[in-house]
Every structure is written in C-alpha cells, then in structure tokens.
Write a structure and sequence with these properties.
By secondary structure, this protein is an alpha+beta fold. The protein has 18 helices and 10 strands. The chain has one domain: Cytochrome p450. A hairpin with a 2-residue loop joins strand 1 and strand 2.
C-alpha cells in the first residue's frame, strides 16, 4: 500500500484545466494512479485511470451527498444558501438524482424509470426527426454573411424542444422553458430564485391538470408512478425530477452535438466513412462520446469509510474526484486513444466509455441523448454535404467551466442550399 501523502497542490495549470482538459488530466493520469490535489480549494483525491474510475463509480462506499457521511451535513445545500438561494427553494436543487445516494436514489430512480422507458424514447424518434428537419430548414435564415452558429441554432434548441414535448409542455411555452434552462445553469442567485419559483408553480399547475386530463406525456407518467408500496414522488421530488431532466437536456446533449460536429468536420476521413456507411452512426456516436464527450469530471464524491484505490489509502470523509474525460483516453483500456476512429470495435459491454458514468448514477437519459445525436448527425450531413468550419480552430471559444468541455459557438458555412 502506498504511504499516504498529505501534501496537496493544484495539479493542472489554468490552461490545462480550461483549454486542454483532456491533455491536462491525461498528464496527471500518466504520472500517478491516484493524485492528491485541490478542488474548489479543498484537498481532493483525483482518480484518472479507466479501471480505477470505473471501480469508484460502481463502489457505493463513495457517496455523492456529503450527508451520507457519519455526522455529515449537506455541503451542496450549504453552498446554495451562501450564494443567496432561498431556503425554501434549495430542495429543488439539492434533491436532484445526481446528489442523492441509496436508498433515496434507488427509490427515485425506480419510480422515474417506469415513466422514462425505452419504449417511450423509441416512440419519440419520428418526432425527433421532425424537430431536427425543422431546425435544419431554418438554418439558412439565421446565417450572417453565409455563416451560422450551429450551437445556438441547432445543437441547443433540439434537446430542450424534445424534453419539453416529452414532459408535456405546450408549444407556446417553449421559449419560456428555454429561458428557464439558461437561468438554471447561470448560478446567479437572483435568476435561480426567480426561475425556481416560476417553474415550480408551472409544474404543479401542469400536474394538477394532468390529474383530471391525463395525456401520453412524461408528467402524467411521473404523477402516476409508484412502487409496490404505493410510494409516489412528492410534490418537491416531481419538480426536482423535471428540473434534472431539463438541465441534462440543456447541457449534455447540446455539447455532445457541438463537440461531435466539430470533431467530424476536422476529421474529414471519418466523416467520409460515415457518409459512405450510415450504419456506422450508432458506433460513431459512442466513439465521439469517448473521444470528445463533454463530461470531463464527474460529481464530487465522498469516501464513507476508509477505502484503498490503486494501492492508495483514501480516508473516510475524504473528497474524491473521478475524471471520466481522462479515463476515456486511457491507453491501458483503449488502443490508440488519441485517435478518433468511428469504426472502433468496443467490447461487449453496452457502454465501454464512461461518458454516461456507470453504476447507480448511469445517465438516465443516455438512450434519448444517443437517439437525438444520431438523428442530428444523419440529417445534418445529408442536408448540407458541403458543411464546413467557418473559422480557424484556435479561434473557437469554449465555455469557461472546469468540469465540462462545451463550445460557446460553432460557426459553419452551409454552402449547399436546402
């Protein structure tokens, strides 16, 4: 067992953390199996190698809520309170699936899975295709001097439109929900307080209507969902669940579509393979999730007891940060990890990359994200065969967030008229 080193330091330069996180965390991965550094000013263990990241994600001794520690308090809720988020609204944020641990997490996920089924996702495909086609039809109208932002006008509106329709939000309220989704991710207390107040009232009103006017939508499924003991979602849990789905739709899938489109446009050999054989598309999306997936680091975890990882003792209460973005480029797991290869033949397990996490916190909306991305790329590159990047790579701007890799915009030239 390695001797515990209580020293800690920033592991990455600002450039590595913000501009080259794959490379920066990759350097850490190759230097040591378990690194000691700082995260949000606190000493934290960083896990970057594939086998170790996978093991921690599957290990229930690592909790995502600090309350799971003996005598622990809800650190996330405390941070929200210090930011100025209203005490009565904090449960809508702190109660998200990503911040809960078993048994609460197990109960909530079980209830939601019954409404968020594979059948429902599959049934949405034709509607996803129609939404994509509508967005592609509108792209030329957004162009300025022949250039259009693929993030703003295609990647971003697609997932939030789909999730709103899935929930049961009327079309005339879509713009309001798009604004709320931006408020949610702003981390501005005033905007959060206003949005949470408005959206909770909206969801409660919609749920009341669905009690007497049920529809084939997610909100109806959620208010009907119950387990064998007739345990249902509380009013707060209902709002929190819809918010969780909205945030996932507003962040993960748009970033995947943006990152993936950029990757294919800058790897013309891979794009040519995809155009020649559309059957490669499902595998291509999984390779893009591995190679340029937006999730660099996962949610912070806490060791609920002493645990040894890769020969290093992690004490009860220690913070642990797993880094899927580094694990997905681990040469111990993936041959030629730095190469984008849409013909890569993954092993038999359903999702060998860790972009959707693993274990209890495996992404609830993975199937929907895969479907939306597949449809988006199939339609985009068929409609605009001459699509090309409209700026040098080094002029692209990335969102200044250390936990994710997301383009702020993706300027492209369509060239071919629709």
């Amino acid at each position: 067992m390695a001797v515990e080193d209580m020293s800690y330091r920033p592991l990455l330069s600002a450039y590595e953390l913000m501009e080259d996180p794959y490379g920066g965390f990759g350097r850490v991965r190759e230097e040591t199996a378990v690194a000691r550094g700082l995260w949000n000013g606190s000493p934290t263990w960083f896990i970057t190698r594939y086998d170790d990241v996978s093991a921690v994600l599957m290990d229930r001794r690592f909790a995502t809520n600090s309350q799971s520690l003996p005598g622990g308090t809800d650190v996330y809720a405390e941070v929200m309170a210090k930011m100025g988020v209203s005490e009565k609204l904090i449960p809508y944020l702190a109660g998200s699936l990503v911040y809960t641990d078993p048994p609460d997490h197990t109960r909530l996920r079980k209830l939601v899975l019954r409404a968020f089924s594979a059948r429902r996702v599959s049934a949405l495909r034709s509607r996803v295709e129609a939404i994509v086609d509508g967005l592609l039809d509108a792209l030329p109208g957004h162009a300025e001097d022949g250039v259009v932002d693929l993030v703003e006008h295609f990647a971003s509106p697609l997932p939030i439109t789909v999730i709103c329709e899935m929930v049961g939000v009327p079309g005339e309220d879509l713009d309001t929900w798009r604004a709320w989704s931006l408020d949610y991710t702003s981390m501005d207390a005033h905007r959060l307080n206003t949005m949470l107040t408005e959206i909770s009232a909206y969801i409660h009103d919609l749920a009341e209507r669905r009690q007497t006017e049920p529809a084939d939508d997610l909100i109806t499924g959620l208010i009907r969902a119950h387990d064998e003991d007739s345990d249902r979602l509380t009013d707060t849990e209902l709002v929190t669940m819809v918010l969780t789905l909205m945030v996932a739709a507003n962040e993960t899938t748009p970033a995947l579509i943006g990152n993936g489109a950029l990757a294919l446009l800058t790897h013309p050999d891979q794009l040519a393979l995809l155009r020649a054989d559309p059957g490669l598309l499902p595998g291509a999306v999984q390779e893009l999730l591995r190679w340029c997936g937006p999730a660099i680091v996962a949610k912070l975890r806490y060791a609920t007891e002493d645990v040894t990882v890769a020969g290093t003792l992690i004490r009860q209460g220690d913070q642990v940060q797993v880094v899927p973005g580094a694990a997905n480029h681990d040469p111990r797991r993936f041959p030629r990890p730095g190469e984008l290869d849409i013909t890569r033949n993954p092993e038999a397990d359903r999702a060998p990359h860790l972009a959707y996490s693993r274990g209890a916190h495996y992404c609830l909306g993975a199937g929907l994200a895969n479907q939306e991305t597949e449809v988006a790329f199939a339609r985009l590159f068929a409609r605009y065969p001459d699509l090309r990047l409209a700026c040098p790579m080094d002029s692209l701007r990335w969102k200044p967030l250390p936990v994710t890799r997301q383009l702020q915009e993706l300027p492209v030239r369509l060239e071919t008229a629709p």
